[in-house]
Amino acid sequence: MLSLLWLVPALPFAGFLALALFGRRMGAFAAAVGTGSVGLSALFALAVAAGFISSPPPARIYTQSLWDWINVGGFKPGILLYLDSLSLVMVLVVTVVGFLIHLYSAEFMEADDGYSRFFAYMNLFVGSMLVLVLAGNLLLLYLGWEGVGLCSYLLIGFWYRQPENGAAAIKAFVVTRIGDTALAIGLFFLFLNLGTLDIQKMMNMAALRWQAGSAYPEIAAALILGGALGKSAQLPLQTWLPDAMAGPTPVSALIHAATMVTAGVYLIARTNVIFTMAPAVQFAVAVIGAATLLLSAASALVQHDIKRVLAYSTISQIGYMFLALGVGAWSAAIFHLMTHAFFKALLFLGAGAVISGLDGEHDIFKMGGLRRQMPVAFWCFLTGACSLAALPLVTAGFYSKGLILFSAWQSRRAGFWLWAAGIAGALLTSIYIFRLVFIVFFGKPKTAVVKKPGPRIVIPLVALAFLSIVGGFVNMPAFFGVKDVFSRFLESVFPVPPQAASLPETELLLETVSAIVSLAGVYVAYFFFLAAPEYSEEMARTAPGRALGKFWFSGWGFDWLYEKALVSPYRWFARANRNDAVDLIYSFIAAASRFFHYGLSLSQTGKVRFYAAVLALGAVITITIAVLAR
Amino acid sequence: MILLWLIIVPFAGGVAAWILGLRGRGGGSAARWASIAALAVDLALLAAILAGRSAAAGRHGDFFLEARAGWVPQLGISIHLGMDGLSLLLVFLTVFMGIVSVVASWTEITERAGFFHFNLLWCLAGVIGVFLSMDLFLFYFFWEMMLVPMYFLIAIWGHERRTYAAIKFFIFTQLGGLLMLMAILGLYFIHGSQTGAYTFDYFDLIGTRMSSAAAFWLMLGFFVSFAVKLPAVPVHSWLPDAHTEAPTAGSVILAGLLLKTGAYGMLRFMVPLFPDASQRFAPVGMAVGIIGILYGAVLAFGQTDLKRLIADTSISHMGFILVGIFAWNGLALQGVTMQIISHAISTGMLFILVGALQERIHTRDMDLMGRLWEKVPVMGGVAMVFALASLGLPGLGNFVAEFLILLGAFRANPAASAAASLGLIVSTVYALWIMQRVFHGDERTRWTLPDMSVREKGVAAAMIVAIVWLGLYPQPVINEAAPALDGLRRISISGPQAVKIPAPDFRLTAAAKAVPLPAEEDPAFDKKARVVPDISSQKSGEGVNERP
Which of A349, A173, A149, A137 minimizes the C-alpha distance to A260? Predict the structure, then answer.
C-alpha cells in the first residue's frame, strides 16, 4: 500500500501535463481530467493512509526515494518522499479538500473561456502542495514551496484581462518571494552548519551540535520563520492575501484559505526541533501570531467585500496557528490547520455560491435576505460560520481553538497575555463572521438571485459542512473523558508538550469562558447588524469611528507604508535610470572625442597663411615655456 | 585531430553557406541547410568523442582529448587544443545554440542569407576555438576571431540603431581584448625570462613564479577583458545596445555563447594562472558581481523595449557567475557551469520569442503590447516558462545554478551570498513585469497575429525539455563537469604553504559541539577540499605558484 505513495503527487502533475498540452482541445472534458486526477490522488492517499494506520511502518516513518536530484560533493538532496503522521494528515487534507474544490470548480468555472487552463493550474497546485508536504529534504520542500507560490500567482491573475488582477498576482508572488529568499538563506545556513538538508538528519544533527538558545538555532529559526511569514501571510508580510481575492473563488478556497497559506505553519511544525532550541524566535512566533490575529480580525470587521472579510479572517486564523506554534502546542496548531481547512473552504465555497447566484456581486451591503432564496448555501455557510466562531460543543472550531487557547494559557512566557489576545480575537471573530451572516442572509432581499447552485456545487458544500462539524471530534478536551486521538496520532512527530500543572478543571473553566465569549460575539453581531443596525451606523459616523473604520478597512496602513517606502522609490529609480547613468561616462568619452574631431577638422582650412600663423604661435608658446621652465 | 575538425567544419560550412547563398532563388534555403548540416556534423563528432572517450586519454589529468601542432615554433606558439568535461559541455552548448539560432531565424533573414550564415558559423567556430584552445596566443586569436563576424551580424542585419550598437560592441570588446593581449605578453615574457623557454602554452604557463604585484596587474588585465565580455558593471553598457539591435540569431549567440566566453576565461585562465592575485581580488570581484545582479535587475525593470529588458537581465544573471567564480569552491563552480548552460537556454529562448513577436507586430515597445495571451496563448505559455526560469523557479535549470552558486558563496562569504540572494527578489519583479506588460492586462493595441508555427513550436519544445531536464535531473551535467572543475581547483592551489593554513571554518565555533559530520554528508566538497582550502578563504602567500 505505502509503495503507492509516489502516485499521490504524480497524478496531479500528470493531469497538469495533459491539460497544458491538450487542454484547449478537450472542451468540457478538461474538468473530468482535472477533477479525476485529484480524485484518484485522494483515493491513493486514503489507501496509503489505511496502510499507514493498519500496519505502521517502523518508527512510523515511510520514505520513498525516487531519484537523485543534485549531487555535488556532499550536497546531495534527492527527490525523496517522506511520510509520517504529520505529512499524512497534510496529504489527506490537501487531496480531500482539493478534490471537493475541484468538483465545485467543474460547475463554478463552466462558462469561463479558460476552463482547461484553470484546471491545469489547479492540478499543478495540488501536485506542488503534495511535494511540499511530502518532501524529505528542505530543498525538495523549497521546490514545492515555490511551486505553490507560482500557482497562487497564476490563479490570482487567472482573469488576466484586468490589470488590477495582474497587479494583485505580482504583489502576491513578490511579497512571498521576500519570505522565500529568507528561507533560501536559511537553507544555505542550515546546510553549511549541519551538513545536510535531509529534514530528519538535520533535526538530529541540530540537537547534537547546537546548544539550545545559542545563536545558531536562533538564526536558523529566524530565517525559516521569514519564509513562513511570507507564505502564511503573517505580520509584516500579510499584505498580499486580501488582494489575492482577485482570483476565482475556488482558488481562494483551496489556495488562500485551506492549504497553501498554511504551509508556513507546516514548515515550522516540521522543523519544530530548531524552534524548540530557539526560545527567542519561538516566542516571536507566538507574539506575531497574537498580533496578527487581532489586527486582521479588526480589519475583517469593517470590510464590504464578502471575500475580503474571509481573507482577513484567514490571516487571523493562521495567527491562531502561529500562536499555538509559538507556545509549543504543535499538534494543536496542526489540529486547527485541519479544521480551518474544512470550515474556511466551506465559507469560501458558500460565498462563491452566493456571488455567482447574484451574478458576481461582492458587496455585502447589496446582498440580503438570501436565507430563503438560497437555503442550501445559507445552511452550509452558517455551519462554517459557527465553526469559525467556535460555537461550543457542536463545531470543529470550538475544539481546535479551545486547545490553542488552553495551550497559550499554560505557556510559561506571557501566557496570560497570549491567552487574552486569543480570547479577544475570538470575540472579534464571532462578531465579524455573524455580521456577515446577518447582513447577507437575513434582512430584506436587495438583489435578485439569478442562478441556483447545481449538484456539483452542493455536494462539496454539504461534504465540507459535515467535516466542519465532525472534524473536531477527533480531539476532545480531557474533561470529556474521550481520548485525544488526533494529538496521539501526531505524538510520533512532535515532542510531548510539557505537562503543566493545570488541572482539567482549569481547562473546563477556560473552555467555558471561550464558549461564553463566542456566544456573546454572536449576540453583539445580532444586536448591531440585524436588530438595531442604526447603532452601528451611528458609531461609524462619528469622527473617531470613521477614522478607525478607514484605518482598519485599509489593513492598518501597511499597503500605504510599503507603497511609499519601497515600491514607489524602486519604480521611480528604475524609470529615472532607464537610460543607464553608467552609460553617460561612455557617451561623454564618445562626445568628447567627437568634439575634438570636429574642432580639429575645423582647423584644417587649407589656407597656408593660417597654418603659418598657427605654426609661429606654437613655436612662440613652446619657446616661452622652455625659457620660463628653466 | 578530431578537435581540430570541430573547428574546421563550421568554418568550411560557413564558406559553403556563403557560396550556396549567392544563387538567387533558393539560395537562402540552401545556406540554412548547409549551416544545419555543418552543425550536425559537429554534433556527430561530439557524439563520437563521447563514445570513444575511455580509450583516448589526454596528456594532462582531466583532459581526455588533446591535439597539438606547431604554428610559430620560434615564438613558442602552437595549435594546442584540449578538451575536458567543461570544454565538452560548452562546445556541446555552442553547437546546440547554433542549431537553435539557425532554425529560429529561418524566416527572419531574407537578405544576403548566405553571408549571414557565413558570419554565424564563423562566429560559432571562433567560440568553439575559444573553448578548446590551450595556447594563450591561439586563445587570443579565436577571441578576436569571433568578434568580427558578430560585428557584421549586428551591423548588417540589425535593427534601427545597428551601426551605433555594432561599433560600441566592437570598441568595448576590442579594448578589453587589448588589455588581455598585454597581460598575455607580460606573462609570456615573465615566464620566458625565468625559464628560458618562451611559450604561450597554457600548461607551461600555469604556476609561473612572479612577484605578487606583477601577478596582480596581469590578473587585472585578464579580469577586465573577461569582465567586459561577461559583462560586469560598470563595463556593461555595450550589452543592452548590442543585444537589442542584433538580429535574433545574433542576440541568441551573444547572450548564450559570447558572454559565456568571459565566464570561461575566468574559470580556465584568470584564476588558475593567477590564483593568489585572484584570491586577493575576490572580495572586489564578488562585490562587482552583487552590484551587477542588483543593478542589472533594476535596469531591466525600467525598460519599455522588451528586447532591451531581456538584455539587461543578462547583466543580472552574469553577476551570479562572478560571485560564483570568486567563491571558487566545488559547489559554486558547479553552479557557475549550470548557470552558463541554463542562462544560454532561458535567455536565448526569450530572445527567440521577442524575435518571433517582432516579426509579427514589428515593434518591441511594451507600451504597445498587452493582453497578447488572448491572441497567442502558446507563445504566452512558452514565455511564462522562460520568465519563470529567469526568476529562478525551482524545477528549472536556472534555480539549480543560482542555488549552487549562492550555497557555495555562502560558505566563502555569508554576507556576500545573502546580498546576492536579493537578486531572487528583484528578478521576480522584472520577470513578472514582462508577462504583465506583454501578455496580460489591457489591450493597448489591436493586433492580429498568428500563434507559433510548427517550426517555432519545435524550437520551443526542445528548449523547454532542456531547461526542465536541467532543473530536475542536472546530474549528467554535474558529473561531466566535476573532474574538470576539480582539476581547475587543483591547479589553482598555490604551493604547499597554503595547505598548512587551515580554512577558517565557521562551522566549528565555541557553540558547536565536537560532533563529526556524517562522512557522506560532509559539506566540504571532497577530501581534497578539506585539505586544500578555497581560494577565497586562503591566506595569501607571497605569490609563488607551483604546479602540483
Answer: A149
| Per-residue pLDDT tens over the stretch A370-389 | 888 888 889 999 999 999 99
Read off the amino acid at residue A503.
L
Nearest CA-CA partner of B259 in B372, B185, B172: B172
Domain for residue B509, yes or no?
yes
Of B432, B521, B525, the CB nearest to A195: B521
Number of C-beta neighbours around residue A190 at 10 A: 24
Low-confidence ranges of chain B (pLDDT < 70): 54-61, 494-548
Helix H, strand E, coil C: the string for B84-120 is CHHHHHHHHHHHHHHHHHHHHCCCCCCCCHHHHHHHH
d(CA A274, CA A548): 40
CA distance A118 to A109: 8
Q: How far is B133 from chain A (nearest CA, A)?
A: 27
List the one residue out of A370, A372, A371, A352 whose CA is nearest residue A362: A352
- Planar angle of CA B445, B448, B449, nearest 5 degrees: 120
Q: Does B461 touch chain A (CB under 8 A)?
A: no
Contact B331 A73 (CB under 8 A): yes
Rounded Cα distance, A397 and A426, in Å: 11
Interface test with B, best of A192, A196, A579 (most B CBs within 10 A): A192
Distance of CA A82 to the CA centre of its chain: 23
Measured distance between the N- and C-terminal CA atoms of chain B, rounded to whole angstroms:
28
Which neighbouring-strand residues pair with B65?
B83
| Residue A130 pLDDT greater than 90, yes or no | yes
CA B328 to CA A420: how far, in whole Å?
Answer: 54
The one-character DSSP state at A79 is: E
The H-or-E segment that residue A381 falls in is helix A375-389
CA torsion B55→B59→B61→B65, rounded to 10°?
-50
Nearest Cα neighbor of B433 from B533, B301, B305, B308 is: B301
Q: Give the DSSP per-residue string, B185-203.
A: HHHHHHHHHHHS----BHH
Residue B282 CA to residue B288 CA, distance in Å, equals: 10
pLDDT of B526 reads 40
Q: How much is the ipTM here? A: 0.90
Q: Which domain holds residue B371?
A: 2-53+63-513+529-537
Selecting from B394, B439, B478 the residue whose C-beta is nearest the C-beta of A71 gives B478
pLDDT digits 0-9 by tens, A81-98: 999 889 999 999 999 999
* Torsion angle (degrees, nearest 10) of CA B108, B239, B349, A69: 160
Output b/e per residue, A193-221; b: 16+ Cβ within 10 A: bbbbbbbbbbbebbeebbeeeeebbbbbb
Closest in A67, A146, A576 to B473, CB measured: A67
Quote the distance between the C-alpha of residue B480 and its chain's center: 17
Helical spans, DSSP H, in B302-413: 306-327, 330-361, 377-390, 397-412
How many structural domains comprise chain B? 1
- In a domain, residue B518? The reply is no
Considering only CB atoms, which chain B residues are within 8 Å of A586? Answer: 168, 237
Residue B411 covered by a domain: yes
Q: At CA A471, angle to CA A461 and CA A478, rounded to 5? A: 160
All residues of chain A having their beta carbon less than 8 Å from the beta carbon of residue B237 are 580, 582-583, 586
Torsion from C-alpha of A126, A130, A133, A139, nearest 10 degrees: -100
Decide if B520 is inside a domain: no
* Residue of B164, B237, B298, B388 for testing the chain A interface, max A β-carbons within 10 Å: B237
B363 touches chain A (CB under 8 A): no
B530 close to A (CB below 8 A): no
Task: Name the residue of chain B whose CA is nearest to A198's CA.
Answer: B521
DSSP A467-510: HHHHTTTTS--GGGT---HHHHHGGGTSPPPP--S--HHHHHHH
